[in-house]
Every structure is written in structure tokens, then in C-alpha cells.
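Reopening closed ticket. The problem is back. First fold of the pair:
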Amino acid sequence: MVGPNHGGKFDFIGWAGLSKSNPSLFYSSSTVITLFKAYISILLNHVNIYTGVAYKNDPTILAWETGNELGGYFLGGGAPPASWTSQIANFIHSLAPKHLIIDGADGLIDSSGTLRNQGFQVGAVDMISDHFYPAEDWLFTKDKGIMASQTPKHFFVGELDWTGQKGGDTLSSFYSTLEGIPGSGSMIWSAFGHDPKCCKFVTHGDGYSLLYPNGNTASLQNNVLQSRTYLRFLFYCSYMGT
């Protein structure tokens, strides 16, 4: 929801005819919020052409996130207000009552280590996530402590540096910390297949392309296999906890 190449909150602000220099308008402008809800409605009511099932009714969809990395790195862009998150989460629930809701702030703390995520205050939010670039145990341990002290929510790793290109700790160490958080799990960014001609792999260009099937190096494939174990754990525990 924040990247210039993927669309984001600034696009909605611009479509409303407002100044993109004020990102808080995404959360405060009734016009922007109406546009965002319209976008959500179109997405959730879309019918899969292969299954004939609308996304809002699809039992294979675990959850919907209120946005992607809305707060930015260490919430430098400001965490979404609880009032906005509540409004959006309840709107999603009204369309897809059998699906879970993920807080889209991306992270719990700011760069000083202070808790800034407001998703804990929202009853309609089922899951809190964080992104780890690099994968660092200290931040994970910090998140774990905060999760234990707040209103019970499921926690999961939405993204992480599974390639090791940014340094950080080993995946085995990182996932060992993950195992200490009940009902948790991990996903990774991002899976790509072949191009329309089925000859070449499509890549994202950021170094985190999971090329399916068997398009990565042997070392990276091993990292993917480690991640897959915890991805399954996430789906099982989060579903069973509702």
C-alpha cells in the first residue's frame, strides 16, 4: 500500500483531489476513506473465473490485511490510527465475515523501541505482523515480549530477508525464536513463476524472488524449505485459534 510502483495511500489521496504532501489524509479524509472502501469492495466481491467463488467467500483465503507496510520502516511514516483501522477492519468483516483481519501497520515499535502499533486496540483485528529486513533475533524477541503484554492477537512474520542479503541472523536462529510464540508463523516475499511463454522466470528485481519451481540456487532453495515449515504452522494455528 505504500510503494510508488505498486500503488498506495498517496494514490488514493491524489484521486480524491487532495495534496499528496499530507499522508495523514489517507486516514482522516472521508473522501479518501470512501474511495479506499470502494476499492476493497471491488476486490472482495471479485469472482474467481476458475472457481466461480467470490474472494469474500473463498475458504482458501486466510485473512485480509488493512494495507501493506502502511507505517513504513520502524513505523517511520506513522502507525495507522486505531479509529481508522477499526473502521476498515469492520468494513472488511462485513463483506468477508469468515476471514481473519491483519493489521497493516507493519511492525510494533518505532526506531526508539517505543510501542506505536495501535492495532492491539482494535477488536476486529485478529493478527499483528512485522517485516524483518534483515532477519534479526533482537527485534523478534522485542516483538515477542510486547505481544505477551498486550491484548491477545496472533503474531506472524509477514516478510523477512530469507536470502541473507542484508545480513542479520541465520534463519535457523530466527525461526527458533518464532517457535516460542504460540500460534505464530511466517511468510516470505515473494513468489514468482514463469512468464506467459513458460520459458523464463519472472523476477521482481529486489533480490527476493522465490522462483517456483526450482528456479533458485540450491542454497536459497534450502532457505525456502525452512520457511515452508513455518508457513504451514501459521495457517494451522491461526485458523484453529478463531
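Second fold of the pair, where the issue appears:
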Amino acid sequence: MIQKELDELRDQFNNHVVRKINGKVLPSGVSPNIAYVLPDQYGGENHLQPIDKLAAQGLMEAIGGKELIQFVSEEYASCAAEVFHSLGVERLTMQNVWVIFKDMLPLMHP
């Protein structure tokens, strides 16, 4: 739920057009996403460095893999997803998340 809200906020921020301000150091009159992918058109420079994806995956595995960034076991996550879907929730929001959580609890540990 929190990740979904954060993703929506990121998308909203990165896709909105910043008001044009003359003399501003950072790009204006364009969305951050457009300025990011076309830096040369907005007074910027591309300093991204390519990385070897296999090397990055190897490093991730060496420090603990996917389990390192998971809050619960895959079994528990699967059970929670099943219970959630059984409730027929149309949309999870900040307004209904705790009600749904309360409804899920007795079904998680019958």
C-alpha cells in the first residue's frame, strides 16, 4: 500500500510540467522526466554510467538476494494475496486499508 502511494507520488512529480522561469539554473517549462531523457535540449549533460546487469545481480545475490528486501516469506505473501483477492476488494486506498487489514486477519490464521 505504501509503495503504491509512493509510486503514484513519484509519477505525479516526475511527469508534471514545471512552470517556465527565465534565469533558473535547473530546467523549467518541461517535466523532470523529459529533462532527464533529453538533457542536452535543456542545458544538461548525461553523466549516467553503464553497468553490467549480471554483475549487479551477482552482487545482490552475494549480499542476500531478494530475501534481503522482502518483509515476509514468499509463503506468507502468497497466502496474504489469496486472502486479499478472496475479499473482492475493488481498490485499496489509504482510507480503506485498515478495514481490509482487519478483515484479512482472521482469514490468515483461521
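Update: turned out to be a display glitch only; the data is intact. Helices lie at 2-15, 32-37, 53-62, 74-86, 97-108. The chain has a mean pLDDT of 90. Please close again.
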